[in-house]
Predict the 3D structure of the following.
Amino acid sequence: MLKRASSLLLITSILLSACSAQNQSASDAKDMKDDTAVILTEKKTEENPSAESQIENNETDTEIHPKTDTNITGTKPKIPSTDGTSREVLVKKTYHMNSSYVIKPNDESSPAKVVLLTFDDGPKDEKMINSLMDTLDKHHAKAIFFVNGDRVKRQPKLLKMIHDRKQIIGNHAWDHEDLKKMSSSEAKKQVTDVQQIVKDITGEKPQFFRPPFGSGNDALKDAVKEEGMLYMTWSNGSLDWDKSTKNRPDKVIQNVLDQLHPGSNILMHELPWTVDALDELLTSLEKKGYSFVDPRAIELQSR
């Protein structure tokens, strides 16, 4: 009887050991499966980041003006949406231009003491353009660079550089000729050819037009309107093009300040002495309580 009991105990011990080994194997297999799942999940995350993480890592172009705390800067860049497409947040149109080419707020919520900065007759020189844009960035300002098509054709990389640095490109006709002296069809071609070359290089057409010498007529204005652009000349001339200001940054600054008024539409050019004057000029404007309107906040029809 004792011998039989010993046999039963031995058999029971063997069975328990087998069960324990089987449970351990199952546990090890589960752990291995969990580890594999983690590795696969991490790999998937690295190779296919979510749209949310892309949005979080995407820097926007919205800035708050230091004096007014008013959001008057430009459009944000395209941001990937959850469905894989791109969406673009458009700037609110808070300003308009009147018949005298002065910039006016649409209502009392936007400051009236603003100026519009513009530079004509480019693009000419990489060093000068970069210097202008460095100063604009320093003052959190946007400007319209009114370009000529023949210059763009010669140096397309300069146009691309202006666009990539998030400044605004305007249409200044193909050649720097008096469009008023041309036939309607010739003048229109001067406008549309610039629209096309700018779009070919940047993917976007200009929304602002300024005729060379400020010279135009109703037919030209109609052609500009057909292209969906705002026609403008200026209300504040720096005279930086005149021989009296050549190599005189101080004179450029004084000319602007002498004509300064709320909504000043300031005409400048890509010239060495204007480059040298710009930082001090913008500092002086800020000290007088002026801020710099983003061109994209301006309606594309005057009123």
